[in-house]
Amino acid sequence: MKIGVFDSGLGGLVIAKALMEALPKYDYVYYGDTAHLPYGEKTSGRILAYTLDAMRFLIDQGCGLIIIACNTATAITLRYLQKRFCPQYASTVKILGVIIPTVETALETSTDTIGVVATPATIRSDIYGIELRKISPKVEVVSLATPRLVPAIESNDFVTAEQAIQEYSQEFQNVPALILGCTHYPIVKNFFQKYLSHTRIVAQDDLMGEKLTNYLKRHSEIETKLSRNNTRRFIVSQLSPSYTQVAQRLFPNIQLEKKNT
């Protein structure tokens, strides 16, 4: 069994890199649905359909543990996948998301006020507010949809990304902790820190390696089934030169494969 990592595009590569650095001996398959990005502006039904297709694809690649690196897909689909899809389609497969680990980490810094930047779909779902208040009912959550970032990052346009972040950051000047609630955003976390120098930036690439390590320690029934050949495959649904440039920022020698349709 391999570890699968799924994202709506290439932002999830930051999570894949963190996992591979923390747990290098395992076999990984990354799948980025670049043909349909950004998910954050699509309907819940469309997001579910794309994510179900991705789960079936990764399972067909031999993945027994799948990390949904996409916050939007996690917010919209994870409960359905865990409660309905896996029991019916692949009962031995485990699917995990990124939101709960992020919430737990953010609350280590502040239980009074926490900011969240994410795609419009994630913000509409209020998944971060819901999960934060489950643990800390009195926490104030300041949420902002930041739709300009994913297209800029996927286009390798970091000038536009920085300009957008400078504007978005005005909403969080007095917020002690800010969750980057999209796996594309750690790629530009230095810009958030630049304009929010007194705010703790909670980026998922900084926490997911440790979180998955701890998960596997607690679940030996999964860990013992994972193959250990140190292999990596990176697959996308649509390939372009700009996608390769983005991917090479994180994996200089990466070989992107296009999914066979």
Describe what this molecule looks like in 3D.
There is one protein chain. This protein has a six-stranded parallel sheet with strand order 4-3-1-2-9-10, with helices on both faces. A four-stranded parallel sheet has the order 6-5-7-8, sandwiched between helices. It has two domains: 148 residues, Rossmann fold; 105 residues, Rossmann fold (3-Layer(aba) Sandwich). It is an alpha/beta fold. Helix 1 packs across helix 10, helix 2 packs across helix 3 and helix 4 crosses helix 6. 45% of the residues lie in helices and 18% in strands. It has twelve helices and ten strands. The two termini are 23 Å apart. The longest helix has 19 residues.
Q: Quick summary of this structure?
A:
This protein is of the alpha/beta class and 261 residues long. The protein has twelve helices and ten strands.
Write the layout of secondary structure elements.
Blueprint: E1 2-7, H1 13-22, E2 28-32, H2 44-60, E3 63-68, H3 71-89, E4 94-96, H4 99-106, E5 113-118, H5 120-125, H6 127-135, E6 140-145, H7 149-154, H8 158-168, E7 177-180, H9 189-195, E8 200-202, H10 208-218, H11 220-223, E9 232-236, H12 241-250, E10 256-258
Helix pairs in contact: 1-10, 2-3, 4-6
